[in-house]
Records
---
Amino acid sequence: MIKTDVIIIGGGATGCGIARDLALRGIPHCLIEKGDFAAGATGACHGLLHSGGRYVVSDPQAAKECYEENIILRNIGEKCVEQTGGLFVRLPGDSKLYRDRFLKSCEKLGIPTEIISSTKALELVPNLNPEIEEAVKVPDCSIDPFRLCMLNIVSSQKRNGIIFIRHKVTEIIKEHGRCVGVKAADQVSGERREIRGNIIINATGAWSHMVAQLAGNEVPLTLSKGSLVITNHRLTNMVLNRMRPSADGDIIVPNEAVCLAGTTSLAVEDPDKIRIESHEVDTIISEAGKMVPHFNDTRVIRAFSGVRPLLKSAKADSREITRGFQIINHGDGMYSIVGGKLTTFRLMAEKMVDTVMDHFHLKKTCETAAIPLEGQEELSGYPLAKRLSNMKNIVCECELVSRAEVERIIKQTGTCYVGDISHRTRLGMGPCQGGFCTFRALGIMHEKNLLSPEQSMYALRDFLQRRFRGIRYCLWGDQLREEQLVEYIYLGILAMERKQ
Amino acid sequence: MSVTQHDVIIIGAGVAGLTAGAVLAEKGCNVALVAKGEPTACLSTGCIDICSLDHEPLHGIGHLPEEHPYHLVARAVIREAVDRFGKITDEMGLPYVGSLETNRRILAALGTFKNTCLVPSTMAAAPQDEKDDLHIITFSGLKDFYPSYIIARRGNASFSTYEAGADTTMGLAANFERHDFLEKFILWLEKIKIPENKIAFPAVLGLESAARIAQKIESSVGKKIFEIPTIPPSMPGRRLFNVLKDYFRKKGGVIYWSWPVSGVEKAKNIVEAVITPSDGRPQSLNAKAFILASGSFVGGGLHARRDTIVENIFNLPVFVPGKRDDWFDSDYFALNHGIGKAGIIADSSFRPKEAPWENVFVCGGILAHTEVLKNGCGHGLALATGHAAAASCLEYIK
């Protein structure tokens, strides 16, 4: 049995942010995540560090929070934020009235804007539709959500935080009506652990109603699915937003070598049973294509969906529901934190930990806004220069990941999941989507005696099936061609066993 | 525009195109082949899968759905195509073993077995079951081969690593072609005492003279050796392509290499020429007949758009397996993806159905309803239909 003060359930940005905040305030804690870090909405979003512009007209409070956090994250997270800047692009037919309201609200909230002529905008982003009326520049940035989670966790680990990933909470232990601990099952070995603590924080996003249920508590949620597509290269070096009320496919975000475009917004019931519809992909492409015409003939390498955990609201259109967040005190030692945005994760964590401090009658104030994220200097594989310096024995040709880097991650994490290597190095994230390098990464794990043949076959099957789920709705043109080749490699040349 | 006249123009330099080319060239036709690049044969294991569904390939073919293009080819013609393939590869120094009567197995790089029919002699000694004990030779830094996959599956295998100064299959194959490298390697191999009966190599034993190199190693160490196909680039696939290409040229065939077809010239129901934009000016390649052997999607013969599937050279009608959502099954491993059925439907004379052309023939992977992966019939179908389409074309031009 493990004893701690605070148990955090959920390893998304919120949970990881809470762990960091608790660590910096010296509170013992344990974080339990059923999959990998950023496995839910955190890892399935644009990776847009909002300037607030997107919400400035519809939800000024959320916009204000976004802008303040945007400034903080740029300061503390230099290595996981790319300061791209963003444009709100007004196309012919987009309401000028909206643009005026947009500018007025930005001014009121102190979000810096700059009106840019179409000529100047085309200089900044040459792929833009030359027909645009004008653009407004805002301080949008691009952020790597997985790296963000990892860096928050570093602070926790440095201060003896206990972290369990791939552990699913199966039971919340209650004694005399109070939550006193959890039971969690190791998803790999099946081993069960009991962790005891005084406070349980439910930061499980789209799953928070289910986790709350384990303690007999309720979390009123509205789940909204958002789908995104990824292109095989960067079409813009700035974040592009459409100057109009939020709608499908009106944001394009550059991220490393690729671009993400989305989103859609559809109400869903079960966060574990979501799928992308072909028409969503087509809508995103045609809408993004209005801002960047070249988008229509660019290779789309993957499509994915995330589920936004929004506060329950009577509003029928989930786009109108506030992006603000809420802390629910269930009164039995459990707190649920729901709503919010990736951009405001730190603020959410701060408010959550303030509540915890009140509960413990402790005074130490939050420092997460002032202290830079720890561990940024060790970020693996990130700078291109670092990748290029190790060109010998490249395992993933699309993203230039070397064998040495893969071996380092295996050694560091002892992982037998290709996904863990991908998230840390970008292995398998390029155009072939792991078609070649998965065989190699698993081969290297095999060499380290980490896998039995059954495990490696299982890992390959699991990987290919997951990969396929991501590319299933983008299969035409070159991506279909590549897919046919990969299928031939694994099922033909390598004679993979199809059934266990 | 310069104009060149041939009897027959073949588009595509894969197994189907080169087989058709060889048949025509042997009959004294003035035949030319246009290829925009290397064929998918270069990515393949180099083995000839005839039909892997059944232990007996011909029996397996009998059970294929009636729309499968194999049914357009008479059994006797399949036998003839396979016999000719055997003669060609013998003549060109890349002998194949196996027979149409029964399939055999090769060891795959994951340690699993793969069913196929004809294999290059360098794979002939592959174990047919778990009994044989193996010693695997690998090369330091080689990123496309991991003996541990095989060892983890077979208790009776071990491995040694040779420092070969190259970490790609291409680089290693080039090294093995060098006499001094081979001598030094054999010296090393003789020194390590290998207790096992058979020695396995990733398929890197040379490019031009693989059969001879394998024989030399075998006779030096006195043990059976065999190659395991690797992920692309695949040396056995490239060797297969090379011998078929060389044979075609030897018989008088012409190859226009790296010439993509950009247009066609037609009159009524006859295609008169294909146009290629090569060498800085357009070239018109005129012929009495054309054989389209441009392959499926990977080869570039078929192109999927977001809403449909097209063939871009002659704009032939394509069998499209439903809407985009129907092209793929959600179970990746179902081997039942609708896309495997996409392609050109041919009539019994290998002319595309519902197309106006009387002098265009199609063969190989571009044909509809092949489902190559599911049926294990890639190169076999290319041999059979390449042969049959050439025969039909020959009849037409006479």
---
Amino acid sequence: MLKRSSGTAQAFIEYILIFGLVTAVASLSLAAMGVSARDVYCTMAKSVAGNPVSCAHYFADDFSNLSAWTIINGNWRNENGQLCGGGREGRIFVPLSERNYVINVRMALLQQGNGYGIYFRATGFDRVDGYTFQYDPGYSPGAFLFRKWVKGNELSPFARTNAPSGYTWHNVSRQIRIEVNGNTFTAYVDGQRVLTGSDNTYTYGGVGFRTWDATQVCFDDLSVDPLP
Amino acid sequence: MAYEQSPSLKTYEQGLPSAPPPDTSARRKWLWIIITLLAVATVALAVVTFARSTAAAILVGTGTVTGKVVDESNRPIVAQIFVLHTNIEATSNPDGTFEIHGVPAGQQAVVVAYQGAGREILVDVVAGARVHMGTVQLTATAIPLTEP
């Protein structure tokens, strides 16, 4: 009896050891590939059980109030349920820990000035590290571009494309979509892909908005979702 | 049959058993093969993860990076210098020169910034050696930051 008991206990230990090693291999594999466990969970959950509430959005805001947001500088305010800012350099952020996601801004309306930016993978908001997609009529002759930020300093664009000739920059509501996937970022304006860029520096972080100079801009209905 | 797998005398109190006790040696052998493979995979992945960490970068050795920062008129400026993927930050001297110690060996991305705008420069750092980046010319951003 004693021998059978010890044999059973030994087998139990072996199965525990296998389970632990499988868990370790799975976690280290995900980390080596730069994939978050939550991304995997949401992908699996969506394929099995539709779209669980916990995976529907990483973040969403209709800007009925700005309580979720951290204002670093600038004149940000809630106007008629929209987030509006401008008149000088402005930065506003919301923190996220996710690595890969899709940013959707249903309405972005540049009323005046040289453009606005949408931050992604942003951390250390006081001295921000991260990226911006910029809707930038001030970048001659008018361009869409990706910039990297290092400790609050903007670097030269690592991806840029000029807008079509005659493009209407101001007083037209635009839908902006940015796919943040690994080291590749893709921007869409009104459903049209306008820019793809690549950089390896930052792997996770929050989102935000940027204004500069005489920009006046309003945004509405932001969502940050898992990649499709 | 191994001694420890031999049935005890109590097994035969009620007569001969109808079937011999199951031989678990083959099953146990496969379990330990699986455990060994998983352990090897765990160690290999742990090594890969560590090799990509900052600690590993420091273990391979460090070097010194020097240079000089000037503005668009070639005047020396006091700029900020950052080494990406590390906590290394420095400021250039009033004469524009800088010297950064303890930079991990290998290709490093060095950012030189002035008044909110910067440039990223790739530098090949050699352990135990000094690498001169040369003169970096920066143009200040046209839009100064203002307090909220």
